[in-house]
Amino acid sequence: MNNLHGKVAIITGGAVGIGAAIAKELAKNGVKVVINYNSSNQVAQELVASIQKDGGEAIAVQADVSTPEEANRLVETAVNTYEQLDILINNAGITRDRSFKKLSEDDWKKVIDVNLNSIYNTISPALNHISHSDAGRIVNIASIIGQTGAFGQTNYSAAKAGMIGFTKSLALELAKTSVTVNAICPGFIETSMITEIPEEIRKQIQAKIPQKRFGHAEEIAKGVLYLCKDGAYITGQQLNINGGLFM
């Protein structure tokens, strides 16, 4: 799918951070983007306006993708608006960091629902439409934490590791079709999750990264673009974008 012009993509959690960068990058390459958000209405609408100002096509759709009914409504809205669906980017995610001894059942369930169960909730209604595309793409935004684990993140790590396993299994099931399924595993990226970390801890993390810097959301977006545009023979893979922190 060297030419993405006219293709349609849903980006969950697409209003801010990595999701917003992905929406901008795909729109810049001719993709009609459906920006999903849960509570960031004003930011989502501003992003839509920015994309449209630059000549792209975009709409914003509110939906809590941790809920099957709302995820289904998101997909229906995208298809009813654009009459097709080619690309699904599962980017929605939250953290509720606690050491396991302090981790409540609600902290566990909410992170699993938003980060992991949401990909089932979106792919289930979307797959039939994506399968009709000449080159469908599913990209799940996982995390280096799903590969390495991290103190105080048993819930987040489990969800992201589950996303990686899900990606591999679904890729096998769809390998004989035109649909590819891949995961991107970002390292530490300059988003609100990083800027909220105390400066001293930020310095400690940065010192451990071989490239000695945090990544940028636009660099993750470039990885998504590559998989969507030139990734016809890439499926079931983890694309690590982490400055060499995990190899």
Automatic annotation (TrEMBL):
Q: Name one GO molecular function term.
A: glucose 1-dehydrogenase [NAD(P)+] activity
Q: What is its EC number?
A: 1.1.1.47
Q: Which GO terms describe its biological process?
A: monocarboxylic acid metabolic process
Residues of the Ketoreductase domain: 7-187
**Does the keyword section mention Transmembrane helix?**
no
Q: Which UniProt keywords apply?
A: Oxidoreductase
Query: Cross-referenced InterPro entries, in alphabetical order?
Result: KR_dom, NAD(P)-bd_dom_sf, Sc_DH/Rdtase_CS, SDR, SDR_fam
- Keyword check for Oxidoreductase, yes or no: yes
Check the record and name the Pfam families matching this protein. adh_short
Family per similarity comment = Belongs to the short-chain dehydrogenases/reductases (SDR) family.
UniProt protein name: Glucose 1-dehydrogenase
